[in-house]
Design goal:
The chain is an alpha/beta fold and 195 residues long. The chain is built from seven helices and seven strands, in the order ααββαβαβαβαββα. It has a seven-stranded mixed beta sheet. A hairpin with a 4-residue loop joins β6 and β7. The longest helix is centred in the first third of the chain and has 18 residues. The protein is globular and about 70 Å long. The termini are far apart. Keywords: Cytoplasm, Redox-active center. Belongs to the peroxiredoxin-like PRXL2 family. PRXL2A subfamily. It comes from Desmophyllum pertusum.
Length: 195
Amino acid sequence: MAWFLGAGGIAAVTSIIVSNWDWYKNSARPDLAYLSAIKLKALDGTGKEVLASDLWEKSGAVIMEALELSSLKPELDQMGVNLVGVVHEKKGVKEFQPYLNSSIYLDEEKMFYGPEQRWMFLSGFLRPSVRKSGFRARGKGVEGNMVGEGRILGGVFVVGPGEQGILLDHKEKEFGDKVDLQDVRDAVLRMKSSL
């Protein structure tokens, strides 16, 4: 019995350490060529396929999966920069659309989540920061669900028009890891000052 309790204690401590380990600190970063070649499907009812480069080719774009970025939409509209949502599945898009109020595209091959996809398993919910993010989202009226593939980690890109390239690349390290909105603003300002 003592062996069983000892093994259980070791397993609990190990799971807490593993769930708080930053596995993705040195994950590969995509370059402009990688992002440009991604095929996306419009979720506006047309199902039109586009290359990701079409999203930023003329005026640049902020490409996101994060709800908080929708608060920047008026500023981005004023500067002529697209705010685009990219999702990896259709589930939940109808619930997400009112928050974004912009174009949403489906990345069926999950290329925007790479080149090395990052996943957080259920053990990630042991992280206090993840639980705090969940409470914060519920406080804002965002209801989560346990439907669909919820383990893949997303991120945010700010990509300049033409060959300006990737001006900001924020990859989530855990659920609820938000990009700093001022970093997004700064990247957009660098984009516009280079035109």
